[in-house]
Amino acid sequence: MTDTAIEAADLTLAYGRRREPALRGCSFRLATGRVCALVGPNGAGKSTLLALAAGLLRPTSGRLAVLGTTPAAARPRVAYVAQDKPLHPGLSVAETLRLGAELNAGSWDAALAAQVAADGELDPGARVRSLSGGQRTRLALALALGKRAELLLLDEPMADLDPLARNRLMGTLMAEAAEHGTTVVMSSHIIGELADACDHLLLVSGGRVRLGGGIDDLVHAHALVTGTGRVADLARHTVVESRATGRGLTALIRTDGPVDPAWDVEEPSLEELLLAHLRAPDAPALITPGTTPTRAVAA
Amino acid sequence: MSAPLLSGTRWAVLRLHRGALWGAAAFAALAVLCTEVLRRSAEHAGAGTFLGFSDPGTFLGQYQEKTTLAVLLFPAVIGAFVGGPVLGRELESGIDKFTLTQSVTPKRWLTARLNLCAALAVGSALAALVVFRLSTSDTIGTMTAQNWMLRGTYESTGPVLVAYCLFAVGTGALAGLLLRRTLLAVVAAGGLTGALMLALGTLRWDLYPVATATGAATDAANVRIPGLPTGSFLVENGVLNPAGERFDDLHCLPEAAPGTDCPADTRVAGWYADYHPRSHFWYVQLIETGIVLALAAAATYGAFWILRRRTP
Predict the structure, then answer these.
(1) What is the ipTM of this complex?
(2) Cα→Cα distances B146→A17, B56, B139, B142, Å
């Protein structure tokens, strides 16, 4: 057993020699048992990172360890749901679940998979091509949960669900993850969707991890300050983003020691934190100590 | 506890291609049935017209010629099936992202699929061979014996058919994995298989040395070839001058036609004929089978190499 779910060191992936790499020098560590939100703008490299961890792609350079081993060796212990929920359209729901059982004979939990499917009122005889987006997502999740994986990689799992279905499916997912101590990594570009469910965050942008760590730790490390001073007055802190407002200046800073009492200090919301970092791509990355790769992998 | 026959990847592959398998089986059964019915009724029909042909023999000759030519399409269809519906479609639609992240390794999954396709290809090729071999009695038998060297008859009565079908499976796998597009892979795999059959069809008679018959000219003005063994395939013939040099009497006598390569001495002293006797059928078949199987192995290796390079 290992206490590290995913560990990346200087991970780079380019889809072609002439194209910009989707990931460049991406480094982070994710401990087991976390429910991690993987956020970032479109094209940031979220899907690429998940596909690499799922053993679908080979990195161009750098190292990636999943559950203490290579992504290929970890394949039976990792479940992955791709963004477009790929399933064989000609199979029925029951046959799709049987396919999951036959291809994951070692660990398959038929009762759980059937339960997740039944909760969504999926007709076992219905063809996959006749399912709605939400039903399809539920079936894909039933397959992923039935595999009884230690690490669940979900690429925009809730994107095509209505709020009620999203809520129910997220509930199922979280209950299973909590019961079995499963590590979950979920990507999304909708920040609010993940804030409640996740305790960990990786913000990816431009092929790199910009913020990584426990959500609470990351929020506490920052402050939203408002005042009539100048940006230069905040020089001892790291100013992520500042802008003029009606009363003076509002800035999101990474605090280093107490802030001058002349400023109004607020704790930023997660959304404010993420937006500030996305708007300021040159701000230095912050990866909390538990989230930096260990020396063994980085070497 | 031994695993049941239909479980794991085997069940998965059979289920995913159930429709195609049933279709192929139905087509094969229908083809055999049609052939048998037509052959029997033709052989029991009396003299006179038969189904619009002047007599049953003509009908059977045409039927034999056309069906053996149809058999030539068979490997190309298998190649197109493996490249397109089996592999290309899965990669094009992104379903490989599901398949390749299950507990079964990508290599095992590809192996399972190619095993099924190879079994299907070899099975149906053998079935076609058995049908053509068993039916070599009566009229069709005489015709097969006479036409053994013809394109179609040659391929559908020997092991090269099995080899071509296996080559089609390997090429289909390679094309599907490389191109990742259903239509492109169908065209590439079918085309490559057809092209190989076409190329070897013209090269195959050079793969084994010909037998040569020679004799003295009995009548220099009218050189004829005396009877070669029954069913021989004449590759080339001509005449010899006293020095034993070969030349073409039609082009060099009475005087050399412009642009032809004739010896200085064009007196006809004898004749020669290069030919393949009936017994060469098996030598050529086995050599060609070996070549095609080697190419099939190379294509299959290439497919696995691409898979290994692409997925960790």
Answers:
(1) 0.87
(2) 59, 18, 11, 6
